[in-house]
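Quick entry, no commentary yet.
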Amino acid sequence: MKKILFLLGIFLLTLNCAPQQTGPKDGKTVALKPEKNDDGEWDLEVLDPQWNYFLNAVAKPMGMYTESYLKTKNNFLVSEWNSYYYARKFPNIIENPIDYDSQENYGLKFEYKLYQVFAFVQWRYGLKMNNLSMGEVR
């Protein structure tokens, strides 16, 4: 009887120590997809306690960029982000791919926020992206 309980205990211990499956159970990835807010404008929310501080105190002001510049940079940065995601590089930082359509007119505000997400990740987590220079933050 003691041997059965011992074996049952070992079995339960190994079962609990097995790696947990993360992500959707059907094997599909959940992409970060831009969505319109209630006003019909494209919007982006970042759920990090230091995001607002970064945006207001560290990031360069929106007036320093043109929409075409940000769109071009975002296209490269999203591509780099997604390549890191699919290569499983930096899995603790890059948890989802980004579904970004370069043909869509998102507007200056959205393009600015998306660009600043990449600058924020570099500033906060030290992830250096090839298409983003250190001079992008104050």
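second:
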Amino acid sequence: MSKGSDPTEGVLLRQLIVGDLIDIVGIQESLGGESEVEYWRKKLDVYTADPELCLGAEYAGKLIGYILGHIKGGEFGVADETGWIELIGVDPEWQRRGVGKILVEALFKVFLNRSCKKVYILCSWKDNEILGFLRELGFVRGDLIHLEKSLPRVGASGL
């Protein structure tokens, strides 16, 4: 790549389709994440119902990244319609080359066109790489916090 060239040149954004299932599973396997085909089939069935919020990045005919979002309001004390980034993944060979950024910015445009005033995403405070990426995109710590409780194994007493 020559100095000053766009690292995302030739990358096309498009709506994801259920046929992207195997490519998404492959990206997830390379990231060490959830790679069960049935898990992703269910996700794609839900998210492709609103294809503007379900985007893929493609290079030379190969899916190299994806982002899934949704819009909701009136929940968790959030009155306005709010954009949520549910999942994002970029092939490791394409990370740090702007693919994640163009996916997120494309989803921002959809959220804006649908009158969202804010965008939320959840991530681990321990994942400094993801936190740095999100900070570069303008995310800051919000007012919501997540709480968790471990449940006993199925069949264990205690409930």
